[in-house]
Design a protein that fits this description.
The protein is α/β, with parallel strands linked by helices. The protein contains seven helices and six strands. A six-stranded parallel β-sheet has the order 2-1-3-4-5-6, with helices on both faces. Helix 1 packs parallel to helix 7. The longest helix is centred in the C-terminal third of the chain and has 21 residues. It is globular and about 40 Å long. 39% of the residues are buried.
Length: 173
């Protein structure tokens, strides 16, 4: 059994579709699910979000009843240094790969990690993702919410692909 800790983005809460998917996967496995919630203060990105994210994730880690796994979206990827320090496995959903500190922390992490992003997301840098040495799932045409253009079926196909990747990642732990 693990504790899946869902870490939101700046405007993407743990009620978003990707987290609903992760919650369903964890719950079906009989794992514990903890949700991090926050109100992002104005100006956070200008002063550096890592301490803010670290404090919220550290509090959730304190509540975890079993081995933690982070499932973090965008702003939540600023928990990468904490995950690396503590050897915590993570699924990084649309991580902020334009920030060298996030890329370095993901690269340094000794635990398994999976990066998931889209080619139409300005925060996804394919070269940086591959340079981490961690497995990457890159969705062609997907934006920062992993939505793709076209009929809704195209997006549900993406959700199926992402869900399967998360299931496979958790199974391999």
């Amino acid at each position: 059994m693990i504790t899946g800790i869902l870490v939101p983005g700046r405007g993407y809460t743990t009620r978003g579709t990707l987290f609903d998917l992760a919650d369903g996967i964890l719950t079906a496995r009989g794992d514990e699910v903890l949700e991090v919630t926050w109100t992002v203060p104005d100006g956070l990105l200008q002063i550096g979000p890592e301490p803010f994210v670290r404090a919220h994730v550290a509090a959730a880690l304190h509540r975890a009843a079993s081995a933690p796994v982070l499932i973090a979206k965008s702003l939540g990827s600023h928990a990468a240094a904490l995950a690396a320090e503590r050897g915590i496995p993570a699924v990084w959903l649309t991580p902020v790969l334009t920030d060298p500190a996030v890329v370095a922390a993901i690269t340094a992490g000794p635990a398994p990690a999976l990066l998931i992003g889209g080619t139409a997301d300005r925060l996804w840098v394919a070269e940086a993702a591959r340079a981490t040495g961690k497995p990457c799932l890159e969705i062609p045409g997907a934006d920062h919410s992993l939505r793709v253009p076209g009929p809704v079926r195209a997006y549900t196909d993406v959700l199926g692909t992402v869900g399967t990747a998360i299931e496979d990642f958790l199974e391999a732990l």
